[in-house]
Amino acid sequence: MRFLTWNIQSGGGNRIEMIVDEIAKLEPDVVGLTEVRHGNLGSLRGALHQRGYEFIETTCSTGSTNSVLIASKLPLKSIDEPVAHDPERWLPLQVAESDLHILCVHIPGGTDNKFGADGLGMSGKKRKELLWDEVIAYARRHRDQRVVLLGDFNTGLPEDAQGTPFVLSDYIRVLRLEKYVDTWRNRNPKAREYTWYTKRKNKETQTSDDYNGFRLDYIFVSPTLRDRVVDARHVHDVRINKVSDHAIVLVTSPRY
Prior knowledge:
By secondary structure, the chain is α+β, with helices and mostly antiparallel strands.
């Protein structure tokens, strides 16, 4: 069984067909997408459905708000576990007729401030803290069940960043203390790879080149699934070829 997560960058724009083609090549059973937007949600749904993903759930509504989506070849069941802040970035589901729980999440970045014209709102750091609190609470509630947490966590430990350290990186340590497994790190304990890069203009070529790398995108599994993961890898070609500005995370395990 394969799980895939990918930040598709600003809703995917005119890249939807390329995005879904890349997903289909990897043959995942469950797909968690972040930065989904309403403007081309119909074309994204349609393209996924044509490639065998009959079961699609999303938090996406009108406007250009970044949302999340889960597409699956297996039937899904909605779970009533709402959050008070940034609900469009939080999608808990269960595989129908199974005890497998899936949470797709997009944690805000530390600078993702959300203020209205009246000046009211919340800083990116506070938004990040509140949604991470919800992730930890969810992880604790379901700790003894089969759980997959996937998405863009905008967080990492020092070994997962070049340049400026992550804000609130201790949440990753808390998740580890709850015995959740960072699947990629578990399978690649000494490697240094990144799923997103800041850019810097090359004065000679006038191109925008990779500068500092960060590992933002993860698939975690609960303790009961630790030994079920047989492969975890990043697919960098999709970022290098500008299908999105993020790499894919792909995890393989025996079918549950």
